[in-house]
Amino acid sequence: MPEVQELVKSLADKYGRKRENLLHILQGIVEQERYLSDVALTEVARELDLSAAQVYGTATFYTFLDTEPRGKFVIRVCRTITCDMKGKNRIIQAIEDALKIRLGETTQNNKFTLLETNCMGWCHEGPAMLINDQAYTKLTEEKVIEIINDYAKK
Amino acid sequence: MTYNKLKRIDLIFHEDCDCSQVLEKTFSKSNDEIINDILESGLKGRGGAGFPTGLKWKFTAEQPADERFVICNADEGEPGTFKDREILFKVPSKVFSGMAVCAKVIGAKKGYIYLRGEYRFLLPQLSKALDVFHKEIKDLLDFEIIIQMGSGAYICGEESALFESMEGKRGEPRNKPPYPTVAGFRDKPTVINNVETLVYAFMICKHGPTKFKELGTSDSRGSKVFSISGDTPIAGIYELELGMSLDHFVEEFGDGDTKAVQVGGAAGFCVPRKKFRDTIIGFEGVPTGGSMKVFNSSRSMYNVLHNYLEFFEEESCGQCTPCRVGCQQLIKGIEAVKKGEQKAAYLDQLLKLSETMKQASKCGLGQSVANSFSSIVENFREEMIY
C-alpha cells in the first residue's frame, strides 16, 4: 500500500519524527483514511522509530483514533444522560432504519458508520450527534433523516 | 447559613473589549503586582478543583527553570459541561489574552490550547482569531499560542494525563507530586488553567480585583459560567454569582417538578429535593465546574446512575486497579440488586467499594466516582432496588 506509506511520510515530514508528534500523525491519518490500518500503524512505528506496540497502544487509547475500517462519514450519537433523556434511542433507531445497519456497523458502500459516543458538550440541545467533525443538535427523527440524505449525496 | 440570591452576571461575554489595550495597561505593572491582583481577587480554578489561580501562577513563576509553559485546558468533557465551547466560540481573544498575562507573569514563551476532539469544528475559526491576536501582541510580548487537538478521551482533562497526551502518549495520569507548577508539560514548570479561569484572570486585569471580589461569598469569590441542562425549560449557558442556594437555582431553572439536581457532572454530587434549601453552590457547599443537570420526578435515578457508571467504566484509563475494576463491579452490582439477584443490603457493600475507590485511585476520575455513586444510592435507595 504505497499510498499509506506516502501519507505517513508526508505527515512525519510535516510534524516531525519525535514521540511528541505521534498523536498529530495519527490524527492526520484518521482525517484522510477515517481509520488506522495495521499497515499505517506499522509504517508510523517505522518512520518514528518506535515499537509497533507503542504506536498501537497509544492509538487504541483514544476513541477517535479508530483502528477498524470506518465509512466516509462517521456518525457518533451522544449516549450520555441528557441526550439519553431527550430520546437518543429514537434517533439511533431512525438512522439504523434509514441506513439498514446496526449500531457499530458500516454501510456496504462504505459511506456511513454508526457509533455512539460519550458526552460531546451539547447537553442543552440534545439529542446531539457528530458527523465527522460537524455537530448536529436538537435532533428529531425527521431532521436526522434529512441530514443523512444530504450526506448520502456527497 | 448565609447565601446569595440568584443573580445573573454579565462579565465574561460582555462587550468586545479591546484586549491589546488592556494587555498594554496590564503589562505596565510588575509581575508581582499582577499576581497580587489575582490573589487579592480570590479567583479559584473554574474547572472544578478550585485551586487559587494566583498561587498556581506564583508557584510556577518561582520555580527555577529554563523554560515554562502555560496551557489552556479546553478538554471540556465532564457530562453536562459545555460552557468552555461557548467561551471559545464567542470571546476567544479574552482566552488568548488571559494566557498572555499568565505567560508574562511566569515567563513562558509558548502556550498551548488543548482542545477536545469533539470541538474540532471550532478549529478554523479559532485559528483565524489566533492569527489576529498574534499580530496584535507582536510588539507587546514574545509569546506564541499553539492549538493541539485531543482525540476523544475524557481522562485527558486531568492535567497530568493532558501533558502525557500532549507528549504523544496514552493519556494516563501521573503520580503527584510533583505538581505541574514544578514538573508539567515536558517536565517543565507549567500553569494549566481551565478556559474560563483564564478569561476571569483577564477580566480581573481589566476591571481590578475589587469588582470581582464584591461578587460571591468569602469562600467562593466572583461569578461563574454554568451549563444548565436536563428537565429545565430554559437549558443553556448562564453566568451567575457564586454562593446561591440550590433552592433559588431550582426556582429559576426547574420545571416545577424537580426531584434532584446533579451538581458538577458525573464526577459531582446528586442533591435531592429535600436538601435544596441547605445546599450552597460554591466551594463551601457543593462545588461545580459548571455542570448542573436537572431531573424531574419522571426520571429513574437508577438509569441516571447506570448511565454515569457506564461513562466512567469506558473512560477509566485502566491504569490503576481500584478505578478499572471498581467501575465494572459497581455496574454489575447495581444491575444485580435491580434484578433481585443480590439483596438490597449489597448496596452497602458497593458503597464501601466506592469509598475504597475514593481512597485508593490514582487520579480524580476514580476518586470521584464515589461522589455520584454514594449521593444517588443514599438518597434514592428505593429506586435502586425496585
Word description of this protein:
The complex is a heterodimer of chains A (154) and B (386). The model of chain A has no long low-confidence stretch (mean pLDDT 96). Chain A contains 7 helices and 4 strands, in the order H-H-H-H-E-H-H-E-E-E-H. Chain A has 154 residues and is of the alpha+beta class. In chain A, strand 3 and strand 4 (134-136) form a beta hairpin. Helix content of chain A is 48%, strand content 12%. Chain A is elongated, with a radius of gyration of 17 Å. In chain A, helix 1 (2-15) crosses helix 2. Chain A has a 4-stranded mixed β-sheet with strand order 2-1-3-4, covered by helices on one side. Chain A folds into 2 domains: 2-59, no CATH class; 73-152, Glutaredoxin, CATH 3.40.30. Chain B is built from 15 helices and 9 strands. Chain B has helices at residues 19-27, 31-41, 53-62, 83-90, 92-106, 123-137, 159-166, 195-207, 209-213, 246-253, 301-315, 321-339, 346-360, 364-379, 381-385; strands at residues 69-74, 110-115, 144-149, 190-194, 223-230, 236-241, 258-263, 269-272, 291-296. Chain B has 386 residues and is α/β, with parallel strands linked by helices. Chain B has 3 domains: 19-213, NADH-ubiquinone oxidoreductase 51kDa subunit (Rossmann fold), CATH 3.40.50.11540; 223-296, Ubiquitin-like (UB roll) (Roll), CATH 3.10.20.600; 301-378, NADH-ubiquinone oxidoreductase 51kDa subunit, iron-sulphur binding domain (de novo design (two linked rop proteins)). The A-B interface holds A 18-24, 26-27, 57-58, 61-65, 79-82, 84-85, 117-126, 130, 133-135 and B 76-82, 85, 116-121, 149-154, 165-172, 227-231, 235-237, 266, 293, 299, 303-304, 307-308, 311, 314-315, 317.
